[in-house]
Amino acid sequence: MSRLYRRGRDLSRPLDEIKVEVHPTEEGRFDTFLQKCLPWRSRVGVQRLIREGRALLNGDVRKPSAAVRAGDIVWVEVKRPAPSELPHPPEIHVLYEDDWILVLDKGAGVVVHPVGPYQEGTLLQELHRRFRRPDGTLDPVPKLIHRIDQHTSGVLLVAKSDDVRSAFSRMLERGQVCKDYEALLLGRVEPDEVDVDAPIGPVSDSRILMRADFTGGKQARTRLRVLRRYAYATHAELRIFTGRTHQIRVHCAHLGHPLLGDHLYGDGLPAGATLERFALHARRVAFWHPMTGRQHEIEAPLPTDFVRAMDALGRQRPADDAASEEAGLA
Fold it and tell me: What's the predicted TM-score (pTM) here?
């Protein structure tokens, strides 16, 4: 929720407090408003913050049931973990860099920016540390051009100014940035190529889940190309022509072939014992640089866990083949 954080603040410096002004449409109970600001906390957890005086209304300790009105200021203390509990800073793997952009190879499990309970150890915070000058100023201020999920590995674009990010945003809207992914899908996808043109919208009773929604969803298009079929899975390349939340995961589940390891849209079963996440990797990005006019095609190699998962899948045989071999030996 971007309202919680001041635009352009130095993310390399710990967040100690949050101040939010109540909008006219947000009037109501104190605890209800606070839970909307902190959706990762339970209602009981929010009420505990208020009772302990770690959440104030206009500088005063109030009851959870107190009314909030437009213009009120809600203050929340951010309790930081002990130094021993802080996550390790993520490694920065640079695939390409110039005066305007960074192209990174993001590791699986790395959160790209502070969100919800993930307020430490994010990629953007580490970039801010990298660009902080000795006098404490931040120049340039790195800006995410797009985002990928915590457990997705691979290519991530970062701008070094608002102008460059705006230019890439327009290019993304026009389909002028080509983004290719590789994934391991449950089951054997029989057509060699599939175009999925299915609008995507949120699941009404969930803050996270999305679904194929042909009545109120936003346009979403994905092209799938089979790279290799295994006994019970498929290695596929996916190109997205739109950038909807969880687009590849939703579209693959819509086809009946969810990503291996996807606990939200599939059965959550791992691809062998080597892959402890859903099997999705942002492999390649291609674009004409908005500042230089040069064409770029940048790739992130498949990570080790992904390659090991493919090796494990390659050793699996269909049950009928195994049964036939056993019968022959008998």
Answer: 0.77
